[in-house]
Design brief:
Helices cover 31% and strands 28% of the residues. Helix 1 crosses helix 2 and helix 3 crosses helix 5. The strands form two sheets. Strands 2-3-1-4 form a four-stranded antiparallel β-sheet, with helices on both faces. The longest helix is centred in the middle third of the chain and has 16 residues. It has two domains: 79 residues, SP0830-like domains (Alpha-Beta Plaits); 97 residues, no CATH class. It has five helices and eight strands; from the N terminus they run E-H-E-E-H-E-H-E-E-E-H-E-H. Strand 6 and strand 7 form a beta hairpin. By secondary structure, it is an alpha+beta fold. Pfam families: DUF1697.
Length: 181
Amino acid sequence: MYRYVALLRGIAPSLPNMTNDKLRGVFESLRFEQVGSVLASGNIVFRTSASDVPALEQRIQQALNDRLGIAGVTIIREHAELRTLLDSDPFPGLTHGRGTYLTATFLKDGAMAPERLPEQADPQARIVAYDRAARAFLAVGDNSTPGTTPDFMSWLDRTYGKDITTRTWLTVQRIVKKLEA
């Protein structure tokens, strides 16, 4: 049995069709086991014997669209991928906060990995690494200035379009904890 998290892009929990109970209901209707949610931002953990991740992503996204009208993006990661990412300690000595906003941006399976990391010209963001196994950019941002977005996030959107989703490092840690429960 595989332990997965579906990272759903574009979830606004204030919308009636995007609440955790409705999202979990879709996953339960697909006969996944031990379905749970982490926070209210589109992180659904589940277990299944299916191992074809792209097929799972497509199946889940189709069900979300058909049942709830959610046309966003579904990105799946397996527990072992995220556990290895956490154990690699990509942010040594840093604590998540306003000046050190730690993030992981996950690329959909099939997205091309970068040949090289983007230039580090943005004073609001520092790209720590690209983790090939987890297919994730790891970055430290400074969001202490209200109303600004690091250029790094704009670069990600221009390069990968909607086939990405970003989570804080704290959220990634909570997801792994839930997968291990």
